[in-house]
Design brief:
The structure is a single chain. By secondary structure, the chain is α+β, with helices and mostly antiparallel strands. 51% of the residues lie in helices and 20% in strands. It has nine helices and six strands; from the N terminus they run ααααβααααββββαβ. A hairpin with a 4-residue loop joins β4 and β5. α1 crosses α6. The protein is globular and about 50 Å long.
């Protein structure tokens, strides 16, 4: 039951995002623009992790300090594969909720509420996975190192999550959320599951969720 509840929370965001999104997949040129912003945020996170003064300020325990000082910080861009969380989320949502004795009625929510719920859960994707796989201390570290930025772009058609998977380091989830007047809010967070891509792919496959990590670069 815990596993089913977690899965429902994790992917409710994606289903809601699909329901209110106005456009389809981005074109390749759009992907490149988002990738550039993602790398910029990862660079900021890496700078935080390497800054002894910052680390000492935000880490609340010696255990956290020790972990951050020994992090395998993402480095070479050439060693990075980039995925987009994709699939037909609406097909499995009712199946998930029916297993908990419930159901999902999109008409029960206003467009604004659906948008708000979708963005909240998408933003928490990395935190939920960290909480499931590595525990509270690592979750706290991811929180103090995560970075955000706001930029203007007409290219983003729907909220989404990109996964930057490094060969010899941790993956990073970057969430892109649409705002008003073409504003885009981006948030990057480490995923401390060292085998995230394979573990996540196997997880959703075994659950029959119809979700996948679509490789884009």
């Amino acid at each position: 039951m815990r596993k089913l509840v977690f899965v429902s929370m994790l992917f409710l965001s994606a289903a809601l995002a699909v329901l209110y999104a106005a456009g389809g997949k981005s074109k390749k040129s759009n992907e490149s623009s988002l990738v550039k912003q993602g790398f910029s945020l990862i660079s900021i996170m890496n700078e935080k992790a390497a800054d002894e003064k910052y680390v000492s300020l935000v880490c609340g325990s010696e255990e956290m300090l020790s972990i951050v000082r020994n992090l395998k910080i993402p480095g070479n861009v050439e060693d990075c594969q980039i995925f987009r969380l994709g699939g037909d989320f609406s097909l499995f949502l009712n199946a998930l909720l029916s297993g908990m004795g419930g159901s999902f009625d999109a008409d029960a929510f206003s467009p604004q509420i659906k948008k708000d719920l979708g963005q909240r859960f998408l933003s928490g994707f990395a935190s939920m996975w960290n909480g499931k796989t590595v525990g509270a201390t690592w979750l706290a570290i991811a929180s103090v190192l995560q970075s955000e930025k706001v930029f203007v772009s007409k290219e983003l058609k729907e909220d989404c999550v990109y996964i930057f998977a490094y060969k010899d380091s941790y993956s990073v989830a970057v969430t892109f959320l649409r705002g008003e007047d073409n504003a885009v809010k981006a948030c990057a967070c480490y995923i401390f599951d060292e085998n995230f891509v394979s573990t996540f792919s196997q997880f959703v496959s075994e659950m029959g969720l119809g979700i996948e990590l679509e490789k884009i670069l």
